[in-house]
Every structure is written in C-alpha cells, then in structure tokens.
Design a protein that fits this description.
Elements: H1 2-10, H2 17-22, E1 24-27, H3 34-45, H4 48-59, E2 75-79, E3 93-95, E4 100-103, H5 109-122, H6 132-137
Parallel strand pairs: 1-2, 2-4
Antiparallel strand pairs: 3-4
Amino acid sequence: TWRELETLVCGKPILDIELLRQNTVYRFCSENDLVIEYFWRALTEFSPEERTMYLRFVWGRSRLPLTSKDFPMKHQIETLKKVTAEPDIMLPVAHTCFFSIELPKYSSYEILREKLKYAITHCQAIDTDGRAYDIWEDDE
C-alpha cells in the first residue's frame, strides 16, 4: 500500500523513543545522571507533535530511520560545555549537523521540560551555530 511505501521511504511518523534511546550516546554525562533521566521522561511525556519538533530541533529531520542499522550517526546527549552558576536560566543547545544536544544541569524536571519545550518551539533557526554561547556572554 502507499502507507507501507511511505514508511519504508520516510520512516515512521511517530518518534519511537526506545529506538532513539538505543541509538543514543552520552558525552560528559551518563545515562543515569538526573538531568538525563529528566530528559527521557520529558520526551516520553511529549505529544507526538512535540517529539517531532524535538527531532527537527536536534537533527533537522522529522522522522527517525526505521531500524538501528539505518542510523547514519548516533543521537548524542552531553551536558552543556559552558558551565554557569545558574544552569536553570540556560536553554539547551542543539547541533543539527551532529544530531546532538547539550543540556544544562537543570535543578528539576519541571525546569528541563519548560526549557526544552521552549527551545523546540521557538528556536528553529540553525544559522546561529557557533554563536549560541556568545548570546549569553553579551549580557555579562
């Protein structure tokens, strides 16, 4: 059918959290860190549309490959390189070319969810790569 062909060519329309987890690597953090647990909890609780928005934010695509062997690269999560005394005011930073996200060490699940949701909804431009840190430094 045309739906089967669409799935084969484009992937599944609903982001498969378990498939994404299986194809995720961690840098400067571990899967058991609290902020990472917050992240997966938020992504799991997001609506299908919000999950798609996350994928666009972090990778510039709206669907995952069908299987692990079809991933051209692994999804990467790391803690934010720019350390600040106030991580709760920072937004996550995505690197679409590398399918990666840098997460500040948020103090609570609610703050991570709020900041991640804001980022995936309002931070659509990818032309600020390399300038994301400079934006915060302008205020100092």
